């Protein structure tokens, strides 16, 4: 039920613009997600509407356009860059005679392929079951109600009701298993607190280079790929900050627009690594023209998991892809580091980042003595590099 074919599938992509100010990066991101899921996009259909249509999400004219594209490219899959209701998915599949997947289903499929640890697989399966429970009717419309009459009386439960009951039982079982994992994680967190080491967590939009930066800071070799959700399972390592000060660094799953609510709930145990942090390194793709919108999405998720109050250091990554930017550090009105411009892949600016982390963590521990420390360190660093602001 949950395994998807590894081979690519010929797909028609559909994106509807509902706002005049939508960035072209939204469509590019959609294309990358489809590729990450293993699909082979054959054609992209764009449109503009004020609001979704109730029956098919798109108008009948667009439905005909999608059908024509399916026939022309011999495709058997349509992927929407939007959340579709169960009824809309069912109506579209009946009309187009092919499989239809919404944005949530697409993201869940990617997560199912990328999960490696026992906890990660449980979290993905929980999210899939919660998503599937609302869509069971698609496969069992002929068993929606029991029939009466001699020879047609059922055992008291339709197949649809039976499947829903089985899914509820599986969800309950998975939640129990995740609760055990959560207890084990809580023990590890208590042990880290006793060690009195500062806990830093990498956060940010998907595919901004968090894992590459994690490897650069810790010397680890976790998977770092130029694709959405390359990291799904959290990784934790020790690192040495400026002056050799030890700390703990966690690499977590990236955020994305319209992150499914069920997925946030399912990954609550993993996201606890973010909630427990003393400092968040918010990694931002410096080459993105959509930085402000992506930042809003990250802050929105942090608010959902009650981690927005944790101090953040903004790290603008991938400056090696920009022509006019060099590694530098920016400070706020109090003299503390607020932004660092680096390239995790080339190592440019990593020393500045380590210095910034050291200053911020020291300020959290000894706020009264931080001003004189920051002033002296800033003066010394300014002599070493004229790029520091």
Automatic annotation (TrEMBL):
Binding site for GTP: 204-211, 229-233, 251-254, 317-320
Coiled-coil annotated residue ranges, if any: 164-191
Cleaved signal peptide residues: none
Localization (cell): Cytoplasm
Co-factor(s): Mg(2+)
Binding site for Mg(2+): 211, 231
Function: GTPase that associates with the 50S ribosomal subunit and may have a role during protein synthesis or ribosome biogenesis.
Protein name: GTPase HflX
């Amino acid at each position: 039920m949950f395994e998807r074919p590894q081979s690519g599938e010929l797909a028609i992509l559909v994106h509807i613009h509902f706002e005049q100010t939508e960035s072209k990066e939204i469509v590019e991101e959609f294309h990358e997600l489809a590729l990450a899921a293993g699909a082979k996009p054959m054609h992209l259909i764009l449109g503009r509407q004020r609001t979704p249509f109730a029956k098919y999400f798109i108008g009948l004219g667009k439905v005909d356009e999608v059908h024509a594209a399916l026939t022309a490219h011999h495709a058997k899959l349509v992927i929407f860059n939007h959340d579709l209701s169960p009824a809309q998915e069912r109506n579209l599949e009946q009309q187009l005679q092919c499989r239809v997947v919404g944005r949530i289903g697409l993201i869940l499929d990617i997560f199912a392929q990328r999960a490696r640890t026992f906890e990660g697989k449980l979290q993905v399966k929980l999210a899939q079951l919660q998503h599937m429970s609302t869509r069971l009717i698609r496969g069992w419309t002929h068993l929606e109600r029991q029939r009466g009459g001699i020879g047609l009386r059922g055992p008291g439960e339709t197949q649809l009701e039976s499947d829903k009951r089985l899914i509820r039982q599986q969800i309950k079982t998975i939640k129990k298993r995740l609760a055990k994992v959560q207890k084990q994680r809580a023990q590890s967190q208590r042990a880290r607190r006793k060690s009195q080491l500062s806990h830093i967590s990498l956060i940010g939009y998907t595919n901004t280079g968090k894992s590459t930066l994690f490897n650069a800071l810790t010397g680890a070799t976790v998977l770092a790929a130029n694709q959405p959700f390359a990291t799904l399972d959290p990784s934790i390592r020790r690192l040495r900050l400026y002056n050799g000060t030890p700390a703990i660094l966690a690499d977590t799953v990236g955020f994305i627009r319209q992150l499914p609510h069920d997925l946030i709930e399912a990954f609550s145990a993993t996201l606890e690594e973010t909630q427990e942090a003393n400092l968040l390194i918010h990694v931002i793709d410096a080459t993105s023209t959509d930085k402000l919108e992506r930042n809003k999405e990250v802050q929105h998720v942090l608010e959902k998991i009650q981690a927005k109050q944790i101090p953040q250091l903004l790290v603008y990554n991938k400056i090696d892809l920009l022509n006019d930017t060099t590694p530098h550090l920016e400070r706020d009105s109090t003299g503390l580091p607020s932004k660092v411009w680096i390239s995790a892949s080339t190592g440019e600016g990593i020393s500045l980042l380590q210095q910034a982390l050291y200053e911020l963590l020291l300020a959290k521990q000894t706020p009264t003595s931080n001003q004189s420390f920051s002033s002296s360190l800033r003066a010394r660093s300014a002599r070493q590099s004229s790029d520091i602001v």
